[in-house]
Write a structure and sequence with these properties.
Length: 193
């Protein structure tokens, strides 16, 4: 099978929700590795679950749902250039991803997620950025207490409930999402780097 065929499978095989058209088109334009497309679908799918939970739980929350979903769908796009970071550590893909998105006409407020998804301690980080970061961790059931604490604090501000109550609810939601990690890991592994 050729790389374009493998990429097509990663973008369209049954499983996680499809990526937004703009993100899928960009991955085809970049001849992105199939594993990257699979990973982005998985994180996008988890972000979809998280924003649905937030919308149901906090109807008055000012959250740019579409920005979160686009951010999740493109957060690692820089790994199309820094392919070794698909299977190993590295952060070169973060700024490279933001630059790639900008070069392909993505608005700066959407391109930022490629650079912020691993930098949740930056000053003035938005809730949307934090949700993309959480989705990028919880898809494989990785829990990051300091990241989750930042989200909990934001939710407590909005919900007016004690932090511990918000923590318990978020913990329950993330535990439920994390239960699907083995299936998600298998889906990603089924697509070559």
């Amino acid at each position: 099978m050729t790389t374009p065929e493998l990429l097509h499978r990663a973008l369209h095989d049954p499983g996680p929700r499809p990526l937004p058209d703009e993100a899928a088109h960009l991955l085809r334009t970049l001849s992105a590795p199939p594993r990257l497309a699979a990973h982005l679908r998985l994180v996008h799918d988890v972000a979809y679950e998280l924003v649905a939970w937030l919308a149901q739980r906090y109807p008055a929350l000012a959250l740019d749902r579409e920005a979160v979903l686009f951010g999740a769908a493109t957060h690692d796009v820089g790994k199309a250039v820094h392919v070794r970071e698909l299977s190993g550590p590295g952060s070169a893909h973060e700024e490279a991803g933001r630059e790639l998105l900008l070069a392909h006409g993505t608005a700066p407020e959407l391109a930022r997620f490629a650079a912020t998804h691993a930098s949740w301690t930056l000053p003035d980080i938005g809730l949307e950025d934090l949700i993309v970061s959480v989705a990028d961790k919880i898809w494989k059931n990785k829990r990051v207490p300091e990241l989750e604490d930042l989200v909990v604090r934001r939710l407590a501000e909005v919900g007016g409930r004690p932090v511990w109550e918000e923590f318990l609810d978020l913990d329950d939601a993330l535990t439920a999402v994390g239960e699907g990690a083995q299936e998600r890991l298998a889906f990603q592994a089924a697509h070559p780097v």
